[in-house]
TrEMBL record:
SUPFAM superfamilies for this protein: C-type lectin-like (SSF56436)
One protein family per Pfam: Lectin_C
PANTHER family: C-TYPE LECTIN DOMAIN FAMILY 20 MEMBER A-RELATED (PTHR45784), C-TYPE LECTIN DOMAIN FAMILY 4 MEMBER K-LIKE-RELATED (PTHR45784:SF3)
Name recorded for this polypeptide: C-type lectin domain-containing protein
Residues annotated as domain C-type lectin: 27-135
Organism: Sinocyclocheilus grahami
Length: 149
């Protein structure tokens, strides 16, 4: 499968803060649409895991990436039951904002969460195919791999 991986260099116009390098190092946006489970597998194979969002700065950063790509939403590492991050860490709800009326579990099996380009989340069916965010980016993974040699 040919995968189009978003290059970090294209993010240089998004944020001009001291945190930019740190944020870019934390996340990798993958434009290829996959089911949540396949996205999780992809992230665990090529990076660390699906993305965990721990504060508003990270949430805003990810929302800005989607906006800059004219994308509506992407999978993040949030799933249930109960709601947990993909690495089983607990959710800090101050950093997760639901869209109005969400989560609604309208299809009865909306066990995965997507984030939109305004930084708001919605529950959705895990078999839906969406772009997604992994953590952490290739630069960190390679650095870690190198340190083990
Ligand atoms: Ca929903």
């Amino acid at each position: 499968m040919a995968l189009h991986i978003f290059k970090n260099v294209s993010l240089s116009n998004l944020l001009l803060t001291d945190n930019q390098d740190t944020l870019q190092a934390k996340f990798q946006h993958i434009e290829t649409s996959m089911t949540w489970t396949n996205a999780q597998l992809y992230c665990r194979t090529h990076y660390v895991d699906l993305a965990t969002i721990t504060d508003n700065t990270e949430n805003d950063f990810l929302a800005n990436i989607l906006s800059s790509l004219n994308l509506n939403d992407a999978w993040i590492g949030l799933y249930k039951i109960p709601w947990l991050w993909s690495d089983k860490s607990s959710v800090s709800w101050s950093s997760v904002k639901w869209e109005f009326g969400q989560p609604d579990n309208v299809k009865g099996n909306e066990n995965c969460a997507r984030a939109n380009n305004e930084g708001l989340m919605a529950d959705d069916t895990c078999s839906t195919r969406l772009p997604f965010y992994c953590r952490e980016n290739r630069k960190i993974k390679n650095a870690r791999a190198g340190s083990h040699l």
